[in-house]
Specification:
This protein is an alpha+beta fold. The protein contains six helices and five strands, in the order ββββαβααααα. It has a five-stranded antiparallel beta sheet with strand order 4-3-1-2-5. A hairpin with a 4-residue loop joins β3 and β4. α4 runs antiparallel to α6. It starts with a strand and ends in a 15-residue tail after the last helix.
Length: 187
């Protein structure tokens, strides 16, 4: 549709018109309604100069609908982004003035608890790729816990490496000699 124009429909839906917005309407007894919901009574003879075919009216209406949907989608996307920012700020703000703990602390601790068995298993597996994965998980958990206001130091993220070192140390130990067949008191 041309910029600065509106799509109008006869009240009996017998004809469609594209009327420039800056044109002064000639009053009359022919009722029309814009797609925006405005109504007017205009001179039928004056209105004929703005008549369009039904196919053009459908095409213009579809264009307007597409534009309206795009504007609506854009508005919804903006509101969702504002809501995401608000939620993120609320999750990372301290629960009260006298504590650094945030509302996300419970979820962060839960993530630690649910991840810990996998971290331990991967750390003790002897597979370097799994041990690296465990280290990555612990580093991510450490960042999340710190962001939630829970103070953990570097040793926290080193936990998988410590477990892997213990496993390696245990594997490298020489087995103890088997117990003697002679029992005390046997002669």
């Amino acid at each position: 549709m041309l910029p600065g124009c509106s799509l109008w429909i006869a009240s009996d839906r017998s004809a469609c018109f594209v009327i420039p917005e800056d044109v002064e309407r000639v009053p009359g007894d022919y009722a029309v309604r814009s797609v925006e919901g405005d109504t007017a009574s205009v001179c039928r003879e004056w209105l004929r100069q703005f008549a369009i075919s039904d196919a053009d009216a459908v095409r213009i209406a579809n264009e307007m609908l597409g534009q309206s949907v795009s504007e609506l989608r854009s508005g919804i996307d903006e509101k969702l982004e504002e809501l995401r920012k608000w939620i993120d700020e609320a999750k990372h703000a301290p629960a009260s003035d006298d504590t650094p703990i945030t509302p996300d602390a419970v979820a962060a601790v839960f993530a630690l608890i649910t991840s810990l068995p996998g971290v331990i298993g991967n750390s003790l597996s002897g597979d370097s790729a799994r041990a690296d994965r465990a280290s990555g998980v612990m580093a991510a958990l450490q960042r999340r816990l710190v962001a939630a206001g829970i103070d953990v130091d570097a040793r926290f993220a080193d936990f998988p490496d410590c477990l892997a070192a213990l496993r390696a140390d245990f594997a490298n130990r020489k087995p103890a000699p088997p117990p003697s067949e002679d029992l005390p008191g046997d002669v």
